[in-house]
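stage 2 :: seqdesign
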């Protein structure tokens, strides 16, 4: 299953970009990142078997193990792509949220988009590590 991050804004050459790249390289699953302008731009076509996950302030604050379990279940069901959407500064509206299979939040604090992208990359690496029974992850 491909893990596809679709994010508004250009990360460029920045410490956050380096961090995103570092975590995505560690993931053994196929990954892809698509950047869109802050407004407009064409969302990549949705293929069959795609699940949509939006990072949203109204989303669930899920433990890493639960994210891993969700990805593992989708993988086992034959889902081809899990697409993670990071919106622009104003986030998503109700109509967009209704299209999501899952809304997740990284807590109640407001995070810069580039940090959210790095945090998402880390959580995807952690989730795939959990599914591979890697000993690094610790619940606590």
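stage 2 :: out
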């Amino acid at each position: 299953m491909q893990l596809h991050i679709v994010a508004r804004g250009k990360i460029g050459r920045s410490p956050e970009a380096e961090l995103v790249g570092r975590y995505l390289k560690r993931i053994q699953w196929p990954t892809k990142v698509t950047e869109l302008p802050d407004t407009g731009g064409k969302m990549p076509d949705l293929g069959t078997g795609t699940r949509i996950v939006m990072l949203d302030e109204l989303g669930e604050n899920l433990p890493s193990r639960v994210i891993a379990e969700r990805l593992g279940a989708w993988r086992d069901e034959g889902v081809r792509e899990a697409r993670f959407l990071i919106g622009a500064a104003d986030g998503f509206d109700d109509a967009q949220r209704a299209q999501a299979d899952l809304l997740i939040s990284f807590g109640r604090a407001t995070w810069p988009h580039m940090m959210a992208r790095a945090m998402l990359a880390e959580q995807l690496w952690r989730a795939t590590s959990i599914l591979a029974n890697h000993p690094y992850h610790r619940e606590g």
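stage 3 :: structure notes
- The longest strand covers residues 50-60.
- Helices lie at 15-26, 64-76, 94-98, 113-131.
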